[in-house]
From TrEMBL:
<dbReference type="InterPro" id="IPR051020">
    <property type="entry name" value="ALDH-related_metabolic_enz"/>
</dbReference>
<dbReference type="InterPro" id="IPR015590">
    <property type="entry name" value="Aldehyde_DH_dom"/>
</dbReference>
<dbReference type="InterPro" id="IPR016162">
    <property type="entry name" value="Ald_DH_N"/>
</dbReference>
<comment type="similarity">
    <text>Belongs to the aldehyde dehydrogenase family.</text>
</comment>
<dbReference type="GO" id="GO:0008911">
    <property type="term" value="F:lactaldehyde dehydrogenase (NAD+) activity"/>
</dbReference>
<dbReference type="InterPro" id="IPR016163">
    <property type="entry name" value="Ald_DH_C"/>
</dbReference>
<dbReference type="Pfam" id="PF00171">
    <property type="entry name" value="Aldedh"/>
</dbReference>
<protein>
    <submittedName>
        <fullName>Aldehyde dehydrogenase</fullName>
        <ecNumber>1.2.1.3</ecNumber>
    </submittedName>
</protein>
<feature type="domain" description="Aldehyde dehydrogenase">
    <location>
        <begin position="13"/>
        <end position="466"/>
    </location>
</feature>
<dbReference type="InterPro" id="IPR016161">
    <property type="entry name" value="Ald_DH/histidinol_DH"/>
</dbReference>
<keyword id="KW-0560">Oxidoreductase</keyword>
Length: 472
């Protein structure tokens, strides 16, 4: 698969970012490492992109997004292989991400056709009876989209799809650790007829991201990544719209009347999908005391049976973390929790970037492992007596994204769902369920905006009112 979009990037005086396979360190590809010096040229191209996208009628934006979806589908096997190679996801996980990306693009096409504005009921206000009018959804202008490494294709589609549907120009800075799927997606959009300036690729590191986000002419920053980066961006952004999709520390509640076999299966997947590098990955499993021992035994047995290793093998359940450094940092967080009194039930074994599925219990609630996002294949088990206790435990961290609850009793599930502080509560699913059309985002600290195509589209457009006063 060639990446023609990169030919447009300025390469002469730039060094390259070499993308390496996290599992075996082999060379996967390279992209130009643009720097702060490239920002004026990037902005000039993006300015033209803003003009060109706003000039595309809705049917053209929709047709381009649909055609891009078709091209991704046609190239699905190559996309999946690229995700495996650059991000270390297993083949099955990568295939699922490609399918979701196709859906995200199709949903964006629908939004372009459908969501043009609303009639304003002026006559609902006394004295305004002589007026009629509407609001339309207008492009914001230039959007800077910054994405992380863990879903290197679909999270990019979640920004480009709604932005294009809304008629905006985009400066896209994908993760420097896994930028190739994003570049290939941009190729598909261009091959589908998108004027090349509409999405300007800005491959580079944090310095480039910082310079782009501080540019005054940028109307919105759509960021997905970690809290520390989000806080940096918020400090330097100035007066522009911010959408922040940050981390989680998801709890799952397992009640005594749950269907145990299915619950264990779902919790194992929730904890170790994408080697735990998943913002809605299950980090804390809270189990009712009367079934704790049985749940723990079954959960550990199922965890130990996971096939860990080469992610390109069709039978692999879990691949490496993104870098050896990330795996070493995880080892450190777990070592800290153990020093603070936790008990290790399995794992805490590392080979390069491969960090084996790790389960702990008795974790001190002041430890990093309990309070912060670990973003690694590590999960904590904890027992509770009453549903009130479980909800209080679930809500302890200062931020959250998703939660899950397993029970056959809908009344208890709904009682808990109302009280759990999360952007989404999954009943009889782990925290790790997402449908790309639903509103998706955080609760509590750092929660700014929602993704999910319709919601991102609405964030990426601005209402403009036209009001007609009947001549009297
Ligand atoms: P990260 O914050 O390290 O990097 C994300 C992006 O920000 C990269 O492209 C990086 O180059 C860029 N960046 C770094 N410093 C910057 C700065 N000062 N200014 C502008 N851009 C800058 O995140 P990561 O390690 O790639 O991804 C993991 C994090 O992403 C986790 O915390 C995870 O929970 C979060 N995440 C959230 C969601 C969600 O939808 N809520 C989805 C996936 C991942």
């Amino acid at each position: 698969m060639t990446l023609s979009s990169l030919a447009l990037a300025k390469t002469a005086e730039n060094t390259a970012i070499e993308v390496r396979n996290p599992f075996d360190g082999s060379h996967v590809g390279s992209v130009p490492c643009l720097t702060v010096a490239d920002v004026p040229a990037l902005l000039a191209t993006a300015r033209e992109g803003v003009r060109r996208c706003a000039a595309l009628p809705r049917h053209r934006r929709a047709a381009i997004l649909e055609e891009a979806a078709r091209r991704v589908e046609q190239d699905a096997a190559a996309f999946a292989a690229l995700i495996v190679a650059e991000a270390g996801k297993t083949l099955r996980q990568a295939q699922k991400e490609v399918k979701r990306c196709i859906n995200t693009l199709k949903l964006s096409a629908e939004e372009a056709r459908r969501n043009a504005g609303e009639v304003v009921p002026f006559d609902a206000y006394e004295g305004s009876e002589s007026r009629q009018g509407w609001f339309s959804r207008e492009p914001l202008g230039l959007i800077v989209a910054i994405t992380p490494y863990n879903d290197p294709l679909n999270l990019v589609a979640h920004k480009l799809g709604p932005a294009i549907a809304g008629g905006n120009g985009v400066l896209l800075k994908p993760s420097e650790l896994a930028p190739l799927s994003a570049c290939r997606l941009v190729d598909c959009l261009r091959e589908a007829g998108l004027p090349s300036e509409v999405v300007t690729l800005a491959t580079g590191g944090a310095d480039l991201g910082k310079a782009l986000t501080s540019a005054r002419e940028v109307r919105m920053i759509s960021f997905t990544g970690g809290f520390v980066t989000g806080e940096h961006i918020a400090r330097t952004a100035g007066l522009k719209k911010l959408a922040m999709d940050l981390g989680g520390n998801a709890p799952v509640l397992v009640l005594d009347d749950c269907e145990l076999e299915a619950t264990v299966e779902s919790c194992v997947s929730g904890a170790f999908w994408a080697a735990g590098q998943n913002c809605i990955g299950t980090q804390r499993i809270l189990v009712q005391a009367s079934i704790y021992a049985e749940f723990r035994e079954r959960f550990l047995a199922r965890t130990r049976a996971l096939v860990v290793g080469d992610p390109s093998r069709p039978d692999s359940d879990m691949g490496p973390m993104i870098t050896e450094q990330a795996a070493r940092a995880t080892e450190q967080v777990v070592a800290e929790a153990l020093a603070e009194g936790a008990t290790l039930l399995c794992g805490q074994r590392r080979e390069g970037a491969l960090y084996h599925p790790t389960v702990l219990e008795g974790v001190d609630h002041r430890s990093r492992l309990w309070r912060q996002e670990v973003f690694a294949p590590v999960v904590v088990l904890e027992s509770f007596e009453t549903l009130e206790d479980a909800v209080a435990l679930a809500n302890e961290p200062e931020y959250s994204l998703h939660a899950g609850i397993f029970t056959r009793d809908l009344r208890r599930a709904l009682w808990a769902a109302r009280r759990i502080e999360a952007g989404g509560v999954m009943i009889n699913d782990s925290s790790d369920y997402r449908f790309d059309a639903m509103p998706f985002g955080g609760f509590k600290y750092g929660s700014l905006g929602r993704e999910g195509v319709r919601f991102a589209y609405e964030d990426m457009t601005q209402p403009k009112v036209v009001c007609i006063n009947e001549l009297s």
